[in-house]
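Q: May I have one protein plus its fold?
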Amino acid sequence: MTYLPAAAVKRTLLVNGRTILEPGAPIIWFTFPSLWHDIGRFYTVSGEFTGWYANILSPVHFLSRTEWETRDLCLDVWLSADGDLQLLDEDEFEEAIARDWISQADAGRARQEAEQLLAAAQRGEWPPLIAREWTLERAKQAVCDTRNARSSTV
């Protein structure tokens, strides 16, 4: 899990005209070594939870405890806080395939992953419990607890 207190996005991200993420808004990212997606808990600058965002990507390869590498496969899944579920960026995905930026094998695996996430979300099985439990308040508290533990050992 990675807590970003302020997103480094340059513009407000919208889905169907609704704000899902703003510059400077907090994000909590969940990165899993063996999965073909990650999960972001998105918020507005004021701290309002907007929903879950999954990047479909190649499985993460960890270089160290704090560094990893992966390849974005262009498709994204969005599940809003009020339950609106959407597959995003299909046009970018198709362009990446047409330009051979994504292999046919990876394109097939990306499409399969997106379809599995959409189906799991429709059944109420996605996002996983860990992404549901780690709220903004919990992430902020964990940061405070870590800082307090470090300062008490100095």
Remarks:
- Residues 21 and 141 are 22 Å apart (CA to CA).
- Strands lie at 2-4, 13-15, 18-21, 27-30, 39-43, 49-57, 61-62, 68-69, 72-80, 85-88.
